[in-house]
TrEMBL record:
Keyword field: Hydrolase, Membrane, Transmembrane, Transmembrane helix
Signal peptide: none
Membrane-spanning ranges: 57-75, 87-104, 124-148, 155-173
Taxonomic source organism: Billgrantia campisalis
Molecular function via GO: hydrolase activity
Protein name: Metal-dependent hydrolase
UniProt keyword Membrane present: yes
Membrane found in the keyword field: yes
Length: 358
């Protein structure tokens, strides 16, 4: 999630737990604690793939943050002026303000290394987009009330309750969407195919399903207001013939660890050289995927790994096209007709099949 959301979540937790005793100081301290795990963004690993896949790593580990919270609790109990606050209360305050940061991140598509240093893939169960105003707003208002009035507990507690209720709604919406998706996948023999179901940008009313199928991948948009209108699959090629060349590079292997099978490969010309790129299909929206990485260049007919990978800047769509797409998404949230087709935003050479009336 974005830093503002993390900050107001930590502030709401801090105010709810210790606001009665510490007032707005609990809110401010909680906000600072909750934003601190993202300080890892200042680390430069010298490689674009490494920078993206190492983010939400050690600084988001439940082991590391629980240990850090325990240390802070011991120091607060020993040195803080508020000597009447028990050690257990300090411990809950510090640990919750810290660990709720990665737990919230794990509810987005990006994935979070909750169990670092264990060698497991990032955890992700996406029920909210990385920026969701409806989740953030109650927290922001609650924290704002606490800072303005000096009552450090009531506003944050209400904001925290409403934001948690929104997550429960988002979880229920995902269950509904997945139930509507299952018959469609069964019809196409894809019931066991790898998939990711996630909300579209800035809402939990319209969801996007991405389903992998060998050299193909399928996209579907499913809204909770679609009623009896069944979802439809749009089919694209993912350049699987280039996958062995990508997996011959260490960054390519790292991306598979990070994104699983949800990668598309393409050979493009960059600075006069044929370059192998990999796109994370989970993040963003068809035609607007922000994570595209260079992996290798073709020399004398052979793919040679790049010494340093790069992240390409919006290779397909300009900012004004993103602004044009957003109203279409809003319209699609309200009704399945007229149909919004993801193929409208994707390069035609990737399109294999689209349903009528696209």
């Amino acid at each position: 999630m974005d830093p503002v959301t993390h900050g107001v979540l930590g502030g709401a937790i801090g105010g709810t737990l210790l606001g009665r005793r510490l007032g707005h100081k609990a809110v401010l301290l909680g906000a600072l604690l909750a934003m601190s795990p993202d300080l890892d963004v200042v680390l430069d690993y010298g490689d674009a793939v490494a920078n993206v896949t190492e983010h939400r790593g050690f600084s988001h580990s439940l082991f590391v943050l629980t240990g850090l919270g325990t240390l802070f609790a011991l120091l607060a109990r020993r040195f803080a002026p508020a000597r009447d606050i028990p050690l257990g209360h300090w411990w809950v305050f510090f640990v919750l303000c810290l660990v709720t940061h990665p737990l919230l991140d794990a509810l987005t598509t990006y994935g979070t290394q909750l169990w670092w240093p264990l060698d497991v893939r990032p955890s992700a169960y996406p029920i909210v987009f990385i920026i969701d105003p409806l989740y953030t707003l109650p927290l922001l208002v609650g924290v704002g009330v606490a800072l303005v009035t000096g009552n450090g507990r009531r506003g944050p507690a209400w904001g925290l309750a409403l934001s948690c209720a929104y997550l429960v709604f988002a979880f229920g919406a995902k269950q509904l969407v997945e139930q509507r998706l299952e018959p469609l996948l069964a019809e196409h023999g894809l019931q066991d195919a790898p998939r990711v179901v996630q909300p579209t940008p800035f809402n939990t009313l319209l969801w996007r399903a991405t389903v992998m199928d060998g050299n193909l991948h399928h996209e579907a948009l499913i809204g909770i207001f679609d009623g009896a209108t069944p979802p439809r699959l749009e089919t694209y090629t993912r350049g699987a013939a280039l996958e062995p060349a990508a997996l011959a590079t260490e960054p390519g292997q790292r991306l598979v660890w990070f994104a699983g099978p949800f990668l598309r490969y393409e050979a493009v010309e960059i600075d006069g050289r044929e370059t192998l790129t990999a796109t994370d299909l989970r993040l963003g929206f068809p035609g607007f995927h922000p994570f595209v990485f260079t992996l290798a260049t073709r020399e004398a007919g052979e793919w040679q790994p790049l010494a340093v990978t790069e992240q390409l800047d919006s290779p397909y769509r300009a900012d004004e096209e993103r602004l044009t797409a957003l109203p279409r998404l809003i319209q699609r949230i309200r009704s399945p007709e007229p149909m919004l087709c993801t193929s409208e935003f994707v390069d035609d050479r990737w399109v294999v099949e689209v349903p009528e009336p696209c």
